[in-house]
Write a structure and sequence with these properties.
Blueprint lengths: L4 E3 L8 H9 L3 E4 L5 H6 L4 E3 L3 H13 L2 H16 L1 H9 L3
Length: 96
């Protein structure tokens, strides 16, 4: 029942806690240093901020005023469209 989830990691890929919160439709703030940040930004599925004091403070301000319901829906859609088992397993079957 979180209002938001903040993942300020500087070097991370696809953290489970972040992915679970996105999948639940929880509005998230993530560091631009994370591997997942670019796809999230492209899908407008999370607030992405620079991993600095100023950047994260700005991200928190944006998170406070964003439409949480709409951001949560985009987050949920991102996870369903990127990490659902049929999508993941299909990528394993594709030739490299």
């Amino acid at each position: 029942h979180a209002d938001a989830y903040v993942m300020p990691s500087r070097w991370d890929s696809h953290p489970i806690a972040l992915t679970e919160n996105l999948g639940l439709g929880v509005p998230c703030l993530v560091s631009s240093g994370m591997h997942i940040a670019k796809p999230l930004a492209a899908a407008d599925a999370a607030i992405v901020a620079e991993p600095s004091d100023e950047g994260l403070a700005d991200g928190l301000r944006r998170l406070a005023v964003v439409d949480h319901e709409a951001l949560g829906e985009r987050a949920r859609a991102f996870v369903q469209g990127s990490f659902a088992w049929p999508i993941v397993t299909a990528s394993w079957k594709r030739p490299s």
